[in-house]
Amino acid sequence: MHNPDLVILDVNLATMDPSIAAPYGAIEQAAIFVKEGNITWLGQMDALPEFDALSTPVIQGKGAWITPGLIDCHTHILFAGSRAQEFEQRLQGVSYQEIAAQGGGIASTVRATRQADVEALFVLGKTRLNSLMKEGVTTVESKSGYGLDLDNELKLLEMNRLLDTHHPVTVQSTFLGAHAVPPEFKGRAEQYVDLVCDVMLPKVAQEKLADAVDVFCENVGFSFEQTKRVFDKATELGLKVKCHAEQLSNQHGSELVASFKGLSADHIEYLDETGVIAMASAGTVAVLLPTAYYFLRETQQPPIALLREHNVAMALASDFNPGTAPLCSLRLVLNMGCTLFRLTPEEALAGVTVNAAKALGLGDRGMLQVGLRADLAMWNIQHPAELSYQFGVNDLLNLWILGKLIQ
Ligand code: DI6
Ligand code: FE
User: Fold this and answer.
1) Prediction pTM value
2) Whose CA is nearest to atom 6 of ligand 1?
């Protein structure tokens, strides 16, 4: 006999499990059992196994839908300050590049973030995690990258670990020391890459502060060669890699990260078919970031048709950051993935569940499947497409993380 510690009856499950042939891997008129934080049974109500109904907490789902807890696999939630005035300038016609040349842009966020103390950063991080969690998010990737010196990068990565411990949401920590060349290294990008490779990465690896290493490979960021140096060192230290690639131009960062069997290539508006094929053969996930595309008023679309044709897994994420995506909502991202990139609502939901888990290298979540974590979001919707269709209505009924009721 099953001995669950939570039973949810009379629900529809969007399992997102590709081995279930129905759209969304759906099992309707279903139930789900949880024990010690994991899913121990799921299936149709008419196949419900016996359990001790007197001693087990039972939730009546009344026909609600359950999805896996949502996963935001690309964010920059740890920053201080605001770039609202830069937004005003940009609306008056000043370009992102001009603002950066005047000492604004990423450099202004780096100044504010270096000045912020640990308590202030904790509150900022917690507030942003709360905003995401209210929409059903249970796992968030969080990058460093606004410290850009050893102490401040370590401060951000330690904050990721602190938030992971003290917040119900899982926080995956990514080291993005190669986000921009800091002001004190202006004109000396190679020397800054030396610092990243020779000092920062060994320390980050030694203290186990990061789950992965990311680089902004771009004409306004780091070159292909510089990116490769960081990836070589990260790999040598046993860290997985991912890449901000092909956001503003084609630097072949996606091929590069695929050659390292990297987790993901992110943004990829300017990706070509050679890059798509490289990603397909390496199993590197395509992470699409429609809010940055929207906020920069980009017109170059990521190559969705080619990604589909070559069966590259597509994830969707918020990229929440103060410069190009000040939009802290994964539900908005679901909608924009469909309206701006023409994903189907099913592809969009896979992008924030099963494929987002893949982009983070997490095999224990992202689907409803026996043995996986009981990270469950229960929604007051008639059909899973509503999660991408509708925005701004609070339709989350309940959220469980590792089987524990959070809201
Ligand atoms: N790509 C982006 O869009 C952000 N970082 C990156 O690598 C921009 C970050 C910022 O402007 O603060
Ligand atoms: Fe980003």
Assistant:
1) 0.98
2) 216
